[in-house]
Amino acid sequence: MVSRVIPVDTFDLVIFGGTGDLAHRKILPGLYRRFVAGQMPEDARVIGAARAELDDSKYREEVRGALREYVDAQRFNEDHVAAFLSQLHYVQIDAQGETGWKDLHALMRDGVVKAFYFSVAPSLFGDLAERLHSHSIADSASRIVVEKPFGRDLASARALNQTLAEHFDETQIYRIDHYLGKETVQNLMAVRFGNVLFEPLWNAQYVDHIQITVAETVGVAGRGSYYDKSGAMRDMVQNHLMQLLCLIAMEPPSRFDPDAVRDEKLKVIRALEPVDPTDIVRGQYEGKGKSDSYHEDVEDDESRTESFIAMKLHVSNWRWAGTPFYIRTGKRLKARQSEIAVVFKDAPHSIFGASAGRHRNILTIRLQPNEGMTLGVTIKEPGPGGMRLIDVPLDMTFADALGPDNDAVPEAYERLVMDVVRGNQTLFMRGDEVEAAWAWTDPIIEGWQGNDDRPLPYEPGTSGPEESAMLLHRANRRWREIRE
Ligand code: NAD
């Protein structure tokens, strides 16, 4: 497989929060990988802007350390790193004051793509947007990238949208959901809309149910005070799981263009029915060991925030009426695994009799680990002994198909940053999408608060509370196992 790297126009990318955790772990290593892949023009520049008192050379040293830590050892090449770092600059800046803004203005070039990554707390977004304009640094062609969380409810998301809209047009705003940058997520659209095979079956007539699982093994220790104010519903469901559900459930867009795709996703969110409280299971990890307790991790014995949630959802439209979507996500679970499973219905009549057992086609879309897709099909077990049926996987693991060391498969952040430079908003959330997702989420969260609802305890290293399994057992279904 020959790697095809499509060049981008040259750019000045300013990372506000360029010394922060996200910049170190994701944004800068992602840019380095694109540099190594030959996609970053030689005269493109990355400008770190943060509070620390650094100069270009100190910042480059700091970034070298981050690359050493977060880039695969085999990709860390001294020559490449030195060349990449020479394209980096630094400005000490205060988002809420006047320090640094004149320096930034002096540094920016005309006639190149200008992008500003807001990798700082959302409370600073308004200050940054305002100063970018008052200092004539951003213009009508500039782009801004904003990180999650985008609000904590409908009112705050609306306020944030309004603040950004005072200075930037919607076509300039790139709201990141890094799940959308994953190769598999885009492949989901390719599989659905590039083949004649799946789309005729992609509806309530043939699909029994859909499962979306995002399981993590880590707890919230270290970021307990942030997490405890948010919980699994706000931190994962409102954004990542909702986006995955949209891509599975949406109607075919007329074109693969940003607004056509996002219009269809929005229709799905708006078609989500309010959730019956008996179709929601909230959990909190609670082990015997000292470091196994959510309460310990957030240092609050009374916390009622969920670290796990499972729900049964209905998309009320002609395509999906009667086919439930089961979603679950949680911390301290058995394995780190994100997958979507489309479970098709049984064949209408078995010519092989009851002894052949029950066989179902399942299309599994794995986001991590080992991105890829598997289609389970039923065949005859080879050999003599009559007609015994078995299920075998048709495996489409991308690493196998493309080769493990292929630069053509960028990771989520690097793809998304390059999309910003290209001006392609398809994989970014539009303001109305985010608001619609909060409009659906808010009443559910308010319901718990009104009822004084307590999450159910679950043992770390399991698949969550037993009641989560019951959610499916009630309908004679079962979750797919969580495993690496
Ligand atoms: P961080 O605390 O590690 O870094 C914050 C950065 O903001 C630092 O560079 C700091 O200098 C800068 N900063 C703070 N106040 C400033 C001011 N007044 N003026 C100029 N710069 C200022 O934060 P982080 O973990 O890198 O997160 C950044 C953003 O990304 C947040 O909105 C966070 O919610 C979001 N995010 C982070 C992660 C992650 O894994 N770290 C994941 C998803 C989203």
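^ nicotinamide-adenine-dinucleotide complex. The CA atoms of residues 272 and 315 lie 5 Å apart. The mean pLDDT is 93.
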